[in-house]
Amino acid sequence: MYNSKNALIAFLGMDSQKKLIPIVSGALAIVVTMCTMSQAAPTLPSGNTVQQWNTIAENTVVGSGAFQAEGFLYMAYMSAAVYDAVVSIEGGYEPYGSAITADSGASTEAAAVEAAYRTLVNYFPDQAAALDSFYSEALALIPDGAQKTAGLEVGLAAATNTINLRASDGRLTPIGVTSPFSTLPSGPGVWRLTPDAFAAPQTPWLGSVRSFILQSADQFLPDPPPSLQSSEWIEAFNQIKRYGEATSSARTSEQTAIARFWSANVVRQYNRVARDIADQRGLGLLQTARLTATVNTVGADALISCLFAKYYYLFWRPVTAIDPTAVTADGFGPIPGYDDGNPATAEQLGWRPLLVTPNHPEYPAAHGAITSAMAEVFNSFLGTQRLNIDIHGFDATGPAGNLNAVRHFEMANDLRNEIIYARLWGGLHYHFSSVAAVVLGRKVAKYDLRHAFRPQN
């Protein structure tokens, strides 16, 4: 039988594409000339070139409406291209994709701009006008000459390589589209659509996307969730019923604030941490590119693995288990739904969680997987378990989508422990779901970090 307490204890103990350049060099010259003539105020975000385009990418991806796991996929495309462009010029680390031969003295800034712009405009052509504006401004800041031209060539090659490498990787469009998936016979424990929206299943296809570094999405598939007749199920059911209810009197105001804090967009949260680390450490373009590429490719792999597991196990959400009348005519079973058949648990009609349940299955918890993976990325990059980082999250007293609240984390496991309980207090995930996710996320990150972005011998 799967035991989350035991699991947590165990867990703790392509050739160069430069020949393509002539087709765009004339256009580049025109863009640079037009931008030089413009007297418009700067609009680029703050930071070095890689930080700037990480912010631009984040705004582009989140602005598209991409689901958070889907968002990491697009961030990974861009970040990998930028990393390959930068490392091809500065060296020191293995490229993610194919090696690119760079001319001596090629501009790293130009390469990063070109790689980021070409990748983003490929995946988000409807946002080309905004991207064109950033691109023109960024190029105008780089002195004209052979070094700039050489850098642009490297950036275009890196973008082309990445786009080709990820072609036919299983990504579906448009943004947020659902897809068919294998179902289980209806019954106790089987996932159903959840209130308030009863929305279509969220991006089941993502669990079948080709991973970035992992061998396969099921490489670290968690053990099954506990039996509905087990003592662990009884404990988890009663715990989330008490602490995760919207009107819970057992949950403290601080716990409520923490649960709401972690309702923020994780693409924004963890890319901001990467940019903050770059600021605090005074990182140059190479290390900034390596950090942001690691954050986003490892993040994508962790969430691909998590989505695969979610739609493999199809375990029910707390709101469905606690209130059988919460289900509607979703095609997955009768109305009302099922109780768990366990005499040691008591259903509660009308029970609702503090936070609205996302429209994908329960097990394992996505936030647990991504947060645990990010904790591993940051402690590996910084070379210490003592992270000493601030994370920005949602402040319930502010506007929708804000990142006004800040929480400080000294140790990697402090972060992992908080996300386990934050999702419980939010009424979204049983304790065992978040523990399994934390273990999954760390396993994915450890594997990815051993097999990519490594120093060259």
Task: Report helical residue fraction.
Answer: 40-55%
For the biggest β-sheet, the strand order reads 1-2
Quickly count the helices.
Answer: 15
Largest sheet: 2 strands, antiparallel
Q: Hey, roughly how much beta strand do the residues contain?
A: under 5%
Flag low-confidence runs.
1-41
Query: What gap, in angstroms, lies between the N and C termini?
Result: 44 Å
The geometry reads as elongated
Note the run of SSEs as H and E. Answer: HHHHHHHHHHHHHEEHH
How many runs of DSSP E, i.e. beta strands?
2
Q: Can you offer a commentary on this structure?
A:
The structure is a single chain. 52% of the residues lie in helices and 3% in strands. The chain is mostly helical. Helix 9 crosses helix 14 (412-425). The relative contact order is 0.15. Mean pLDDT is 92; it is low at 1-41.
Brief overview, please?
The protein is mostly helical and 457 residues long.
Secondary structure layout plus pairing:
Layout: H1 4-12, H2 22-37, H3 49-63, H4 68-90, H5 108-123, H6 128-140, H7 146-165, H8 231-243, H9 253-261, H10 266-281, H11 285-313, H12 318-322, H13 366-382, E1 386-393, E2 405-411, H14 412-425, H15 431-451
Antiparallel strand pairs: 1-2
